[in-house]
């Protein structure tokens, strides 16, 4: 190999620059200067240094200013801090709402899931503006003078504001003049104040009774008097569904005039319209009111009434079976409030 440097062959390499062959005579490193890669690296380092300097990372600890009060006592302040910390921990672990009705249900097993009566859950939903509205309406209708009226009103109102309530099947009984209609008016006002008047539907067996309550007959509302006893026509079904849109509660007055078969028809029509055939009344919350010492069913009399003892003894025909089902539906009414005081 000769000593002529011009004959030295340098292999190709990729350094990100637009050149394939490095000319040694033009190499800045040989001439004592920084190359392009080194310059780029220095620029990045200078940018990072400026950034850290601007954020104060290069300041020493002695340059920072700490204001220590002259009266600072490490031992005394440490004890005060411990006391404050313990007070915060005690407040955090203190049982919530210890003065509420939940205290009636003490948890005997702290490390297990606590099982409460449903009233404890309902108490938590009856707070704030809703509870104030219930109390206001109860006071307006003077329910403090009649505990049965107050109980009936609050059962339905509290049920209406519960997040996941079970189906309500309720009967409000009592002689004429005991205030069943007053409870209804209080409920209508409650829903109206909440802008939810559409949630309650008022029906009755006769036109006169429905007119007194500003409601409708259940025959019209549910299509009971349709000529066909079988399936709904498409037009009738659409009309019934539109009437029940948004309805959660049905208040049926003068329940003594219903026969067992009428009860079955109402439940069957609601189940069909709401598409919940496996639930009584299609899952609708039903509130029945009336006095069984008054008028019996117009057709059949006491023999077909809800309290008849002959229903279901020998159900042979389809009509007898429907009547038997209707009486069993009535026996599912488990929430009962009897009004005794004459108002």
From TrEMBL:
Listed PANTHER family: ATP-DEPENDENT DNA HELICASE
EC number of this enzyme: 5.6.2.3
Single GO MF annotation: 5'-3' DNA helicase activity
Reactions catalysed, as given in the entry: ATP + H2O = ADP + phosphate + H(+)
A Pfam family hit: PIF1
Requisite cofactors: Mg(2+)
GO biological process: DNA recombination; DNA repair; telomere maintenance
Boundaries of every DNA helicase Pif1-like DEAD-box helicase domain copy: 146-312
Family indicated by similarity: Belongs to the helicase family.
Tree of life domain: Eukaryota
Keywords: ATP-binding, DNA damage, DNA recombination, DNA repair, Helicase, Hydrolase, Nucleotide-binding
Class of the enzyme per the UniProt entry, highest EC level: isomerase
InterPro entries the record matches: DNA_helicase_pif1-like_DEAD, P-loop_NTPase, PIF1_helicase
Name used for this protein in its record: ATP-dependent DNA helicase
């Amino acid at each position: 190999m000769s000593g002529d440097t011009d004959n030295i062959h340098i292999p190709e390499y990729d350094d990100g620059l637009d050149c394939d062959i490095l000319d040694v005579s033009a190499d800045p490193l040989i001439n004592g200067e920084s190359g392009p890669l080194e310059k780029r690296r220095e620029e990045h380092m200078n940018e990072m240094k400026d950034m850290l300097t601007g954020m104060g990372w290069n300041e020493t600890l002695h340059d920072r200013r700490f204001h220590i009060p002259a009266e600072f006592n490490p031992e005394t302040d440490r004890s005060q801090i411990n006391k404050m910390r313990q007070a915060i921990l005690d407040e955090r672990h203190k049982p919530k709402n210890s003065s509420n009705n939940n205290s009636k249900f003490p948890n005997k097993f702290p490390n297990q899931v606590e099982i409460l009566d449903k009233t404890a859950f309902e108490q938590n939903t009856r707070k704030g503006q809703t509870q104030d509205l219930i109390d206001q309406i109860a006071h307006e209708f003077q329910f403090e003078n009649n505990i049965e009226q107050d109980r009936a009103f609050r059962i339905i109102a509290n049920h209406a504001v519960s997040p996941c309530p079970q189906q309500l099947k309720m009967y409000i009984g009592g002689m004429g003049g005991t205030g069943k209609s007053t409870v209804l008016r209080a409920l209508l006002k409650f829903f109206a104040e909440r802008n939810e008047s559409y949630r309650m539907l008022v029906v009755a067996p006769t036109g006169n009774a429905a007119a007194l309550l500003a409601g409708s007959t259940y025959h019209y509302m549910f299509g009971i008097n349709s000529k066909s006893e079988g399936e709904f026509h498409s037009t009738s079904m659409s009309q019934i569904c539109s009437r029940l849109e948004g309805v959660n509660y049905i208040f049926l007055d003068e329940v003594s005039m219903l026969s067992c078969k009428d009860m079955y028809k109402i439940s069957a029509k609601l189940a069909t319209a709401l598409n919940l055939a496996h639930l009584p009344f299609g899952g609708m919350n039903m509130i029945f009111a009336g006095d069984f010492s008054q008028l019996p069913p117009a057709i059949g009399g006491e023999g077909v009434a809800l309290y008849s003892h002959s229903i279901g003894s020998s159900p042979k025909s389809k009509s007898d079976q429907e009547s038997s089902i209707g009486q069993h539906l009535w026996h599912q009414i488990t929430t009962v409030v009897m009004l005794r005081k004459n108002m």
